[in-house]
Design a protein that fits this description.
CATH topology of the largest domain: Arc Repressor Mutant, subunit A
Number of domains: 2
Distance between the termini: 22 Å
Order of helices and strands: HHEHHEEHH
CATH architecture of the largest domain: Orthogonal Bundle
Number of helices: 6
Structural class: mainly alpha
Number of strands: 3
Shape: globular
Length: about 160
Amino acid sequence: MWPGYCAESEELVLRLFGACHFVEQEMTLGLTRFDLAVGEFGVLIELRLSGPPYRLTPTQLYNRLLVTSGGMTGRIDKLENRDYVRRVRDPDDRRSVLVELTEQGMEAINTAACAQHQVEEHLAQCLTVDEKSQLTRLLRKLQVDLESHNCCSGGSA
């Protein structure tokens, strides 16, 4: 074997990759009926969950969705072209822009979110409520640790 090899860690990472693959496939497939990409759905759901007046800055959106500012701009542009969101001046800071959910966007996300909820329930149907909570806590712990070590930048943890 190799120095520092840990079979449990390797299996964990392989299971995460496998689960992510199937979850992404199912989520993507579920959204095709609504002509939405997963990333676009993410923007709409974040705006919807933000509560009235359903506005966030592009920076808040890309930080919440873990994408680059350029990637977020592309998503917002596509959603704006479909009249699902609009850019409005921030009333508190005229230099800043907010992304706001439109009435058409609200209808789209309400319908798509209900359908995606069914997909999510299907994906997790083999787990009990307690198991879902435990897995969520463990994955949150792992994600927070990975983010704190900035693992994706090539640095060591």
